[in-house]
Write a structure and sequence with these properties.
The protein is mainly α. Helix content is about 75%, strand content about 0%.
C-alpha cells in the first residue's frame, strides 16, 4: 500500500494538469477522462515504486484497468496503451531495452509520456499542449535527478552538465512558457507555472524545491480559481 499512498500526490497533480489543459484550450472538461487519468497515473507510478518499497500487490493493475475502461468509453484507448508500454519499459525494461537510461533519455521518455497523454486526452490532439507538458515534465524529472547525483551510476543531465545544469533548465523553462504564452495568451496559470518553476530551480534547498515542483500544478490551479472568483 505504501507505493500507492506515495503516488497519490502525483496522480492528483497529473489530473489537475489535464484539467488545466482543458482550460488553456478553452474546451469543456471531460470528467470521465479526468477521473481515468487519475487512475492511470496512480497505477503507473505505483508500479514504478513497487521495487522501492519491496511490495507485491495487484492494486495498481486494478487501477490501470479502471482508468483504461474510462478512456475506452471516450474512444481514447491509445493513452493507456502508450502509458503501460512506456511505464513497463521504464521500470522493468526488456532484454537490453530499458527507458530509464542516462544522457537525458529517461527525462525525454517522461516528458513524452506526459505530453502525449495530456494532449491526446483533449477533444483533438493539441501540439502546443504537447510541447508545454513535454518540456515541463522533462525539466521536473531532470531536476529530480539532482538528489541521486552522488550515488547514481547513470550519466544523468546534472552529471553531464555540471554547473551549467540549472542555467540550462532556467532558459528551457522560459523558452517553452513563451511558446505557450504566444499560443494561449498571458494568463494567471502560465505566469504561476513559470514563476514557481523558476523559483524551484534557483532555490538552494533541493527538498523544498521538489515540493514546489510536485505541487506547482495544484497551487497554480488554486491561484487561478482565486483570481477568477475575486477579480
Amino acid at each position: 500500500m505504501k507505493c500507492i499512498l506515495a503516488s497519490i500526490p502525483t496522480a492528483i497533480s497529473g489530473t489537475i494538469r489535464l484539467y488545466i489543459a482543458f482550460i488553456l484550450t478553452q474546451q469543456e472538461p471531460k470528467y470521465t477522462l479526468i477521473l481515468g487519468a487519475f487512475f492511470l497515473i496512480l497505477s503507473i507510478y505505483s508500479l514504478d515504486r513497487l521495487k522501492d518499497y519491496n511490495e507485491r500487490t495487484k492494486i495498481p493493475a486494478f487501477f490501470y484497468i479502471l482508468g483504461t475502461v474510462l478512456y475506452f468509453i471516450e474512444n481514447k484507448l491509445e493513452v493507456p496503451i502508450i502509458l503501460i508500454i512506456t511505464g513497463y519499459l521504464y521500470t522493468f525494461g526488456m532484454r537490453n531495452l530499458r527507458l530509464k537510461a542516462g544522457y537525458g533519455i529517461k527525462n525525454i521518455v517522461v516528458g513524452f509520456s506526459w505530453g502525449f497523454s495530456i494532449a491526446y486526452s483533449l477533444e483533438s490532439f493539441n501540439k502546443f499542449i504537447f510541447i508545454f507538458y513535454f518540456f515541463k515534465l522533462f525539466i521536473n524529472s531532470a531536476y529530480f535527478d539532482l538528489k541521486d547525483i552522488k550515488e547514481d551510476c547513470i550519466k544523468t543531465l546534472p552529471k553531464l552538465l555540471g554547473k551549467g545544469f540549472k542555467p540550462f533548465l532556467l532558459v528551457l523553462n522560459i523558452f517553452y512558457h513563451l511558446i505557450a504564452i504566444v499560443e494561449f495568451s498571458l494568463n494567471i496559470l502560465l505566469i504561476s507555472s513559470l514563476v514557481l518553476t523558476q523559483i524551484a530551480i534557483m532555490y538552494n534547498n533541493e527538498k523544498r524545491s521538489r515540493l514546489i515542483i510536485d505541487f506547482e500544478a495544484i497551487f497554480s490551479y488554486l491561484l487561478y480559481l482565486f483570481y477568477k472568483n475575486f477579480f
